[in-house]
Amino acid sequence: MSDVFGDGDAREDENAIDLTPMLDVVFIMLIFFIVTATFVKEAGVDVERPLASTAERQDLANILIAITPEDDVWIDGNRVDVRDMSTLIKRLHAENPQGSVVIQADRDSTHKTLKQVMDAVQKAGVGQVAVAAENEG
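C-alpha cells predicted for Biopolymer transport protein (137 residues):
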C-alpha cells in the first residue's frame, strides 16, 4: 500500500518536538541555583541571640563566629580553639577584605568568651565587628 503523502518517515520527523532548547534552559537554571547556594555562609551552630532595640541588619558579613551556651566557638561549621582563632580570622578576612565579622553569641554564653573572641578579631586586624542580636520591635 502506498503512502498518500509520500515518505511516511519524513512526516513523523516534521511533527517531532525538539527538546534541546528546553534542556539547555533547565541545565543553565540548575547551574545558577547550585552556584548561588554555595555562597550562603553559616556559623555552624544555632544560637539564641539576645534582644536589642538598636539591632541592624549586616549584609556584608563574610565571617560568622558563633558562641554556644557552653562557650564553644564555631567558625564555618568547625569548632575552633580561642588561641587559634586570630590566625583563622586573618586568613578568612584576607579572602574578602571588604567584609566584616559578625559574632553570634548565645544569651547564655559568658562575657569572658565574647571578650576573647573580640580580642582575637582585633588582633587579626579586622576593623568592622558586630555582635548579633534579635530586634525587639
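Residues 8-37 form one domain.
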